[in-house]
């Protein structure tokens, strides 16, 4: 099974993906984690990514798609992938569909975590204070949230037209969100 957890930054996609990894053995393909790993490596790519994320901008499709493609074999061996933070644009969604189709698989479900922008701003400020992740500073978060609303939210009709979109209240408890996701996957 291939699943997309869909929602803005700080909506809880990573938390739910980690739960699904533990419970179902799927592989989490988190572009945020992959990009942070590239930064930590100190590679040329990592330095480029660090600069882009510090501004709150989105990394190019080419870089993100290559990172995802590198991990697909691992996901297939585990029985499926949880795409967390990808795709972010219709072009990325189309590239993902083509990439998966060439492997004889597809996206099986898309679960949108519906959240409130104001509550997300508070959530990110708390996470930044606790964890200090550079891409979580409140100012770049606002830029990321605007980019999500402008570029990523238009993906909803794309997946709705495919009959793959379901929604869950992302403002509920971790357990209630988990239950809604599990129901969508059943």
TrEMBL record:
Q: Does the keyword Transferase apply?
A: yes
Which residues are recorded as binding AMP? 31, 36, 57-59, 85-88, 92, 133, 144
Query: Where does this protein hold ATP?
Result: 10-15, 127, 172
Compartment list: Cytoplasm
Under Enzyme Commission nomenclature, its number is 2.7.4.3
Question: Which range is the signal sequence, renumbered to this chain?
Answer: none
Region NMP: start-end pairs: 30-59
Give the domain of life.
Bacteria
* Record's catalysed reaction(s): AMP + ATP = 2 ADP
Q: Which GO terms describe its cellular component?
A: cytoplasm
Keywords from the UniProt entry: ATP-binding, Cytoplasm, Kinase, Nucleotide biosynthesis, Nucleotide-binding, Transferase
User: What's a GO biological-process term for it?
Assistant: AMP salvage
Q: Give the molecular function GO annotations.
A: AMP kinase activity; ATP binding
| Subcellular location, principal | cytoplasm
| InterPro entries, A to Z | Adenylat/UMP-CMP_kin (IPR000850), Adenylat_kinase_CS (IPR033690), P-loop_NTPase (IPR027417)
Q: Which pathway, per its entry?
A: Purine metabolism; AMP biosynthesis via salvage pathway; AMP from ADP: step 1/1
Instruction: State the function annotated in the UniProt record.
Output: Catalyzes the reversible transfer of the terminal phosphate group between ATP and AMP. Plays an important role in cellular energy homeostasis and in adenine nucleotide metabolism.
Free-text comment about domains: Consists of three domains, a large central CORE domain and two small peripheral domains, NMPbind and LID, which undergo movements during catalysis. The LID domain closes over the site of phosphoryl transfer upon ATP binding. Assembling and dissambling the active center during each catalytic cycle provides an effective means to prevent ATP hydrolysis.
The UniProt family comment states: Belongs to the adenylate kinase family.
Quaternary state and interactors: Monomer.
Record-given protein name:
Adenylate kinase
- According to its UniProt entry, this protein's organism is Brevundimonas intermedia
Q: What is the lineage of its organism?
A: Bacteria, Pseudomonadati, Pseudomonadota, Alphaproteobacteria, Caulobacterales
Q: Its encoding gene is what?
A: adk
